[in-house]
Amino acid sequence: MKRLTLTLIILCLAILPSSAPSATINGQNYVPITAWAKANGLRCAWLKRGDVLAATNRNTRLVFDKDSRMAEINGINVVLSYPVASDKGVLLAARMDLDSTVRLLMSPSGYLKPDPIKTICLDPGHGGKDTGNHTFWRSEKTYTLALALELRDQLKRAGFSVILTRSKDTFVDLPNRPALANRRGADLFVSLHFNATKAAHDQVQGPETYCITPVGASSSNAQGEGANYGATPANRCESRSLLLAYQMEKALVQNLGVPDRGVPRARFAVLRDATMPAILIECGYMTHPAERKRIYSAAYRQRMAQAIVKGVLAYQKLTSPQRARPGSMASGSGSRAEAAAKPARSR
Ligand SMILES: [Zn+2]
User: Fold this and answer.
1) What global pTM score does this model have?
2) What is the separation, in whole angstroms, between the first and last Cα of the chain?
3) 312, 120 contact by CB (below 8 A)
4) Containing domain of residue 256, as a range?
5) Which residues surround ligand 1, an ion (CB under 5 A)?
6) How do residues 133-190 score in pLDDT, each as one tens digit?
7) What gap in Å lies between CA 263 and CA 188, rounded to an integer?
8) Which residue among 106, 138, 172 closes a domain?
């Protein structure tokens, strides 16, 4: 993303609490990370001078890379909406990324209005004539369904009601999947997929957990699916979806010991019309020789389902009504907007 540093337009006079200048880059308001960190109780140190910056305090460790959209937030990779830029040796990040994505994930507790979770809609990717990825004679649709059925049983044992967008090898149109979740008043929507890659297929492995792209930002996926920059129904609860995606990626990486491919953002058809927190998990790569062996194993899928349940429970812990404290809402604009825009699910 070197073009962004080339298109650095102007230093303007917007003032941070620490009096550091902000900048407008490609139409986005950027602020020096050190100044933002100081204002948020974090101390910065270079991990690689001029290129990699860490911002830390007792509870938080953030790592930002020059020209990269990937930031590390407490050990988990999260894709920012805009790449980190550099100006005269100072790293800058988009204010929108810092004030919504980073701040929310740094201290989610109390940031979002509590919300009980009763019903979870599971969406096994593909089905019927839509086989999904094909690796040798194996089809993605087979394993997404097998994982969903295992996960359904585990979630029920954990006390949740579960609905499925398909429970057999049947074709379901993409728009019908979130539509079912909306109609049935599901509290969470979890779409399950397995990934594939042509390049470096014997190296690329691990899960990635998608959630909706913020309004105005471009998506992380190469195809930029649905890449108009407007609001989708899913943007009404994008902070919750981000928190769910983050907790899910963390649970998968920590419990399965697999590489962290991060939390990217995309306007996938199954995500953009969901009116509840919604994520799409690419649970691993069918093109990776070792990972696909695990994916084809019922015992490993059982462990994967256990990790996904842990992700749901971690999210629930951070957003459950028991955590409600009057006046405990943080002052971030994202939380206020989201609390006000809590979707009417029966619509
Ligand atoms: Zn898929």
Assistant:
1) 0.86
2) 41
3) yes
4) 119-340
5) 125, 132, 193
6) 998 889 999 999 999 999 999 999 999 999 999 999 999 999 999 999 999 999 999 9
7) 17
8) 106
